[in-house]
């Protein structure tokens, strides 16, 4: 597969945290303050690095010569070779289709590369092909046409049974691919812009008869790399790999308004296996990341879990939903997920697992490590009553299994409720572990570490004080006190 060079992510400095500490003034001596300072530096560097991600940050722009587009395949084409015009007005769908067709004939020769030069390239949805690199130059913008009559309709996803918003078919994605192998979407931080504003307005006014389409959707494919680009203003979910294997998303910026941009999830791995998401900045109108695997009886029947997923070195904001979620559509199962080096700021929730009776499936072997929350309403959430179903055919007795979930090195400031784990009689949460947690709180109420029907343990010192449902162990993992209150309910949604 093609590899592209990436800048050193700012999170690498964390490995030198203790050395830096020797040289900074006394007032930075506490671990909590130092950690916050390092995250602020990392956060600032993301904005400098992704120079065009927010229109108002023009102060970071600098004059520089246009970078040459590297050749990453044996044969490289330019979109203008096929009649493309980057004036923001001319429709370039035919140019993209001709270019992809030419590349599809080069599979036995290592494939081909399509260069999109600087300019605004308006297009209707188009498909990719195997052994293809789509390269977006600096200041290149692929613009999705915002008239739904140009967007093809597709059958519902087999693991969902219907469109997510309407019965029947759904709109396809702006950039789409099925049954592909060896596909790269990369560049010099060029942009794919879905121009979702029209879609969002029509959705709110109930003027659409079909489920909106994602910005980029790759289905039933393998060996996919998406790197060094900006994705913004998707009509619906932004990046949706569906039933794919060996997917890497690296150095990607994903943007949508933090309000009034419904369902603009950043990245939704759906029934995917062996996936890495790293070094990304995400600020959207729904979940930053939502790991999925099908909806109720359709997901159970499809039977493809999301498994072996690594998420690391992310800065995420979600004022509407959560930074990183699992579910709620998780009926095919979710397992072996690691989320580490995550910074969530100015968000409603930080990390969340959401499910309900009728989902079936499981969420197990989930590791959260080195998380930082800044001005977040609820830090850690597990919710088992997310009752939204595709139709009346779901089995209300299909209870998901939630078990083996670990939270280690959790820190933050300005958090209203650090933990809310809401299990229930039918869906208890089993074998949860907390270790090394210190979260500054905004409300000095007693019940801010909230639990219901939870079994697990706390190792060492945790602040704020944990709920009584959990066993207590010392730092050497010796049992101090075993809980006899696992089914106690201490959930308060009033604050």
UniProtKB/TrEMBL annotation:
Pfam families linked to this entry: Glyco_hydro_28
Keyword terms: Glycosidase, Hydrolase, Lyase
GO MF terms, alphabetically ordered: lyase activity; polygalacturonase activity
Superkingdom of origin: Eukaryota
One GO-annotated biological process of the protein: carbohydrate metabolic process
PANTHER family for this protein: PECTIN LYASE-LIKE SUPERFAMILY PROTEIN, PECTIN LYASE-RELATED
Family: Belongs to the glycosyl hydrolase 28 family.
Protein name stated in the entry: Pectin lyase-like superfamily protein
Organism annotation: Actinidia rufa
